[in-house]
Amino acid sequence: KTLVATAVDAPPVIDGDLSEAVWRLAEPSGGFVVEDSGRRASQPTELRALSDADNLYLGVVCKEPKPELMRAKVTEDNDDIWGDDLIEFNFDPTGMNKAIYQIRVNTLGTKELRVPGVKETKVSALRAAAKIGEDEWRFELAVPFASLGISRRPEVQMRWRINFERLRTVGGDEDDDWQYTAGDWANPEVYGHMVI
Asked: Hey, how many other C-beta atoms are within 10 angstroms of the C-beta on 18?
């Protein structure tokens, strides 16, 4: 699978509302499957990606018919939010299949950033906002390349190894992957790609 981060001149406003015209420039991608079995996820998840010279932008819509039952406990950035309803973005920006960077965002917009070999990450540089609707939750995320230690030259295309995981807690924990990994979530060799 490949997700293209469409280049834009005017970035989206990070407010959890994906109705802005700029998001229509991004090709949606979905097809999440249960991590261990590969069967179709019980609820759809749709991703969109944009980029400019300084940032990667992610927009995610998670269908959820019972949003009032979602788990959302963690409110402090960079606390471990695994266990809440969330999206996890695992990626290797080097493309060398050696290190996994990790960003998580829960339904409150709480974010967590893990960078290999870095104890004090620049999570405060990331901007996230989430909104819960009648039958879905959604969020927007802005990731400055500099917060990942990446110096970007916009004229040079980047190709990252990526995967997205959705933890859905309603009705019992369900762990869904954008790219099926057969449970080998920490192996970037089985990830999809992002073109930036």
From this structure: 19
Pairing mode, if any, of strands 174-177 and 159-168? antiparallel
What is the amino acid identity at position 17? D
Q: Give the total residue count for the chain.
A: 196
Considering only CA atoms, which of 134, 139, 138 is closest in space to residue 68?
134
The overall pTM is greater than 0.85? yes
Give tens-digit pLDDT for 149-181. Answer: 898 887 889 999 999 999 999 999 999 999 999
CA distance 185 to 183: 6
> How far is 38 from 90, CA to CA, in rounded Å?
18
Count the neighbouring beta carbons within 10 Å of the beta carbon of residue 119: 5
For residue 102, what are the CA distances in angstroms to 54, 118, 194?
19, 12, 15
